[in-house]
Design goal:
The chain is an alpha+beta fold. The protein is built from 12 helices and 41 strands. The strands form 10 sheets. Strands 34-35-37-36-38-39-40-41 form an 8-stranded mixed β-sheet, with helices on both faces.
């Protein structure tokens, strides 16, 4: 064959191949378009189908992970929790272990033959306190084996697997009443009259006598000094028929926390702050021990820790015992100097009298553990994170947060006891734009299991081998894949911009699906609370849904946010709100410069500290067409007197309001109410003790009504400050609907008669006709 023929056939083959490829490409494009067309935008009611994973625990042999699966209940008025298991080797679907609607807190026995957990039930339609339950892993049904009037919490196995320590608020009076009630019921049954009626002398007063400045806690109700949290012990039953009687181990009028068994099981270490009114002093924590076999006692104090132990996300403050049993590790913040924000660090403490804690991360300028805030952490049974020792005792594994990300790292301990702990090495174990929500390790710490959230993943359980790293991590669960395969979710765009003084600010833009940069979109500025928390690389339903409704959502981390170091976090001390407002406006300006934002269609919203800043924003500028302040503060003075925690220390203000009222008023949004022209909605929880409505939205609402500025309050019965994160599912959905409806009305012109005092007159009605009464 001639070269001419060869060229001809080559050319023919090329054309054929090109045509064939073109046809395939068309088919693939059509298929892709078809798949895209099948997907839909996320809605607010998709929350009802979300699945959350909490409190993962590894079996002693390292073969399985138990975890709590959290779902919305059938009535959509609460949440169901059950315990599931999945092989750590992967390749299998998780399977359900317990059948209760409110099972949580799984804890493997040391030999792996039993799974201890908490089970809560209902009686006469009312929730009962959780009790200890156990599931034989070799076969058989689970059974409950405690019946304490105030229930049980925080169970932990003794090293020999024969005893369980737990906490309870039950006291002797409760037990006596319980026995009396049981006796009367038995007598009534014998007499054939059923349940015995309550007598007049059994009336229990519901009047509260308040003598402490801190007397209630948001999402927890009123504090009862007659019911301190104590440590109890109970023998492990061998079967449902064996009756065991718990005994109280610690006594006194103070709470105990972080119960930790010694290696030989003879002692239990715990923390307590034995000060009736601790708000008069700087925070501290005392470490105690108590003999497990001894009589009930107050314990023996080992040392005083001049640190604020705990309060930094899941498990903050929990103790982790070293492999040799001679030290404990924990996370805590220093209390001096007095800051608005003090970065949490990783500490170790020798279990010796009067020992002083040593800071492992003094020169590591990020939060250990810290956390990234959102609306989609497990609303129930999230569990605790405690630092994990390596078997040789030379390192600790913990979560740290940096620039909106939460990942795992190994922190080295220096070899010499007197070495500089503040210069320990740090080795990343996970990486990427994600948030590690909770984690545990195999007994030899060779593998880690951890729950991951990303902007397009609510949460899933992963396992990594430390020898190969997270690049080869295995995904063990796919709990939301079925739902998310139907949704057109988008990744946010990470941006950085410079503020007025050169501060570099990180933020994210959640854009609508099928975003077109050549079009104009309305913008919602969403401000986080805290103020010392951070937005970041985790799933946020609210942002995704606002974007699906056609809005660009800007969510920045202004100064005062965590995950950017001590100086950045604390710079707003005595200046909040203030320059953080300028950071927010610089972010809005930066996004507008990109050319796809309609400048006359700007909205602003935020909750808690973000609600305070929303109120502040509309008092400083009229550039926003609508605002929604959620769980907000209007008057610092009124909040100082009514919030569920005190500002008796010079953290946010140098002196109390009666000593310098002008300082409080200068930083209170209500002081600028005359400047507000922006239509405002206020989202309020009627059981919110953290930011009581009377110190926030109620004031703004009444003042705006006086000034005839369009405004509404939306009040949620029985909801605490946690409305958006763990409130009743229907309320969470309605909250989002009202926020977006307000913006739809004022930014997009959508009619919303429910926000009007009276319905608008029908345009078709005849002129001069009598109004309908």
């Amino acid at each position: 064959m001639t070269s001419k023929h060869c060229n001809f056939f080559n050319h023919f083959n090329f054309l054929t191949l090109a045509l064939f490829s073109f046809v395939i490409a068309l088919g693939l494009a059509a298929a892709t378009a078809s798949v895209s067309a099948e997907k839909r935008n996320i809605t607010e009611k998709d929350l009802f189908d979300f699945v959350w994973i909490g409190d993962p625990q590894v079996s002693p042999d390292g073969s399985h992970a138990a975890f709590v699966r959290v779902t919305v209940n059938e009535k959509k008025e609460g949440y169901n929790t059950s315990i599931w298991s999945v092989p750590i080797a992967g390749g299998e679907e998780p399977h359900q272990l317990t059948k209760g609607d409110h099972d949580s807190g799984p804890r493997w026995s040391p030999d792996g033959k039993f799974l201890l957990f908490l089970r809560a039930t209902e009686k006469n339609g009312k929730p009962e306190p959780p009790q200890l339950a156990i599931l034989p892993m070799t076969g058989g049904d689970s059974f409950v084996f405690t019946d304490l009037p105030k229930g049980a919490a925080n169970p932990t196995w003794a090293p020999d697997g024969k005893t369980i320590a737990f906490t309870s608020e039950t006291n002797a009076e409760d037990l006596a009443k319980q026995e009396k009630k049981k006796s009367k019921e038995e007598e009534s049954k014998k007499a054939g009259s059923g349940t015995a009626p309550a007598s007049a002398d059994e009336h229990e007063s519901d009047v509260r006598i308040i003598a402490r400045a801190v007397y209630r806690q948001d999402n927890e109700s009123y504090i009862d000094p007659k019911h301190p949290t104590h440590i109890w012990l109970v023998a492990v039953p061998h079967g449902a028929d064996e009756k065991v009687k718990p005994r109280q181990l610690t006594t006194g009028r103070f709470d105990e926390d972080s119960a930790t068994w010694s290696k030989d099981g003879s002692q239990i270490y715990f923390t307590s702050d034995r000060n009736d009114e601790p708000y008069y002093e700087l925070p501290k924590t005392d470490l105690y021990s108590v003999a497990a076999a001894g009589p009930a006692s107050a314990g023996v104090k080992i040392t005083t820790i001049d640190l604020q132990v705990g309060g930094f996300g899941p498990g903050g403050g929990a103790l982790s015992l070293s492999p040799d049993g001679k030290q404990v590790a924990f996370t805590a913040s220093t209390t001096r100097p007095i800051n608005s924000y003090t970065q949490p660090d990783l500490w170790v403490l020798d279990l010796l009298p009067n020992a002083k804690p040593r800071n492992l991360t003094a020169n590591f300028d990020f939060d250990v553990p810290g956390f990234v805030i959102g609306d989609s952490a497990p609303p129930r049974a999230g569990g605790q994170n405690t630092p994990i020792w390596t078997p040789d005792g030379k390192g600790l594994i913990a979560v740290y947060t940096k620039e909106g990300k939460a990942n795992l790292a190994l922190f080295d301990l220096p070899v010499a006891q007197d070495a500089d702990l503040g210069r320990a090495g740090v080795h990343d174990l996970t990486s990427g734009n994600q948030g590690v929500m909770s984690f545990r390790a195999l007994p030899d710490a060779s593998k880690l299991i951890y729950v991951v959230s990303t902007p397009t993943r609510i949460n899933d359980l992963f396992v990594l081998d430390r020898a190969t790293g997270d690049a080869h991590a295995t995904q063990l669960t796919h709990v939301n894949d079925q739902l998310f395969s139907k949704l057109n979710l988008t990744e946010p765009e990470e941006i950085w911009y410079d503020s007025f003084d050169g501060k570099h600010i990180q933020a994210w833009l959640q854009k609508p699906p099928n975003f077109d940069a050549h079009k104009k979109y309305p913008l919602i500025l969403n401000i986080h609370g805290g103020p010392h928390v951070a937005y970041g690389n985790i799933f946020d339903h609210e942002f995704q849904w606002m974007a699906a409704k056609g809005y660009v959502v800007l969510y920045p981390n202004p100064r005062g946010s965590t995950t950017y170091g001590q100086e950045f976090g604390n710079i707003i001390q005595y200046h909040y709100p203030g320059d953080d407002y300028k950071d927010l406006m610089a972010g809005v300006d930066d996004v507008i410069k990109r050319g796809y934002i309609e400048e006359k269609k700007l909205g602003v919203t935020g909750g808690s500290g973000g609600g305070l800043l929303t109120n502040w924003v509309v008092g400083q500028t009229n550039r926003f067409a609508a605002a929604v302040a959620q769980r907000d503060i209007a008057s610092w003075e009124d909040w100082w007197y009514s919030g569920d925690f005190t500002l008796f220390q010079a953290t946010w203000f140098k002196v109390p309001p009666f000593e310098d009222p002008q300082e409080y008023r200068a930083r209170s949004p209500i002081n600028y109410i005359k400047n507000v022209t922006t239509p405002m909605m206020f989202i309020l929880g009627e059981a919110d003790y953290r930011t009581p409505p009377g110190a926030g939205g109620e004031q703004m609402f009444r003042a705006l009504k006086f000034r005839k500025i369009p405004t509404v309050m939306v009040r949620f019965p029985n909801e605490s400050h946690e409305l958006s994160r763990s409130g009743q599912p229907w309320h969470r959905v309605e909250r989002m609907e009202h926020i977006v409806s307000w913006f739809d009305h004022w930014l997009m012109g959508a009619p919303k008669p429910e926000y009007e005092i009276a319905p608008q007159e029908d345009a078709s009605a005849k002129k001069g006709s009598m109004p309908v009464k």
